[in-house]
Write a structure and sequence with these properties.
4-stranded mixed sheet, 12 helices, 4 strands
Length: 274
């Protein structure tokens, strides 16, 4: 089952569970009678506050478990992906890379591979990873543009921020607006890195390096740069060519479901303070 399918199934489950709890609360006196009164008195809580706290505890625990579980999954998946690649790290006496490392004081791992790949990774001390295939594809200024782009991600600790944002998005899946906000956050991080590269190297080298990478990936269908073929790159190209950031409109269904979810949370919070 894909992540998107799982999110949909989980959404249906949570809404069904919430509806069931609401029905349970409405008929609590009938179903539990004196037993519920004893529990509430022993806890010095009203029926409304008891059920509100129960639902809030359930939702809070589930959200926290989803958040921590997603963080652990992404971190482990990334480590599994990086580990075999790092086995091919080589020492390269490349003038551009050597000068860049000395000037920016950052580690650049050069990988002996024909794949077209450049990225930043590492949560505590981010560093840059780039393949020989990517290096051989670019001119001096184009390579510098790529390095400056990834350096910006490292300096801002974007790998950690992206991990956190992905985990929040997963944990709060029942509020679709969170997904919209995280996608915009990812886009802003990419545009910010692009602006840093343009400031230090220029617009043309960055645009050409992006075009070359996409052309090669589209021709050979290689997997490592599959992320470059998503909407983020099309938005980045719009920014480089037009100087504007195009954001997808928010659908009515996204707004409605988000509002309903927030209203349910508000009702639960009100019950907690009754």
């Amino acid at each position: 089952m894909s992540a998107n399918s799982f999110e949909k199934v989980l959404s249906v489950f949570v809404f069904a569970l919430t509806s069931f709890l609401c029905i349970l609360y409405a008929s609590a006196d009938t179903m539990f009678g004196q037993g519920l009164n004893v529990v509430c008195k022993s806890l010095t809580l009203s029926h409304g506050r008891f059920w509100g706290l129960s639902v809030l505890l359930l939702m809070g625990t589930s959200t926290l478990m989803l958040f921590l579980g997603r963080m652990a999954y992404i971190a482990r998946h990334t480590r599994r992906w990086i580990a075999p690649i790092k086995e091919n790290v080589i020492e390269v006496e490349h003038t551009v890379i050597r000068e860049f490392q000395a000037r920016r004081i950052i580690d650049v791992d050069v990988i002996h591979s024909d794949q077209i790949l450049a990225c930043s990774y590492g949560l505590v001390k981010p560093r840059i990873l780039i393949t020989m295939g990517q290096i051989s594809l670019l001119s001096r200024d184009e390579l510098l543009a790529i390095l400056e782009h990834e350096y910006r991600h490292c300096r801002n600790r974007d790998p950690l921020r992206v991990l956190f944002a992905y985990s929040v998005r997963w944990a709060l899946f029942f509020i679709p607006m969170i997904k919209v906000w995280t996608e915009r956050f990812f886009l802003e991080k990419e545009i910010e890195a692009d602006q840093a590269a343009i400031t230090n190297v220029g617009l043309r080298p960055l645009a050409v390096s992006l075009y070359k990478s996409l052309t090669i990936v589209q021709n050979d269908g290689s997997l490592p740069l599959a992320l470059s073929l998503n909407e983020l790159v099309s938005h980045r190209i719009d920014f480089l060519t037009q100087g504007t950031i195009h954001r997808n409109p928010i659908s009515v269904s996204t707004l409605v479901v988000s509002l309903v979810s927030i209203m349910i949370l508000v009702v639960v919070l009100i019950l907690c303070f009754m």
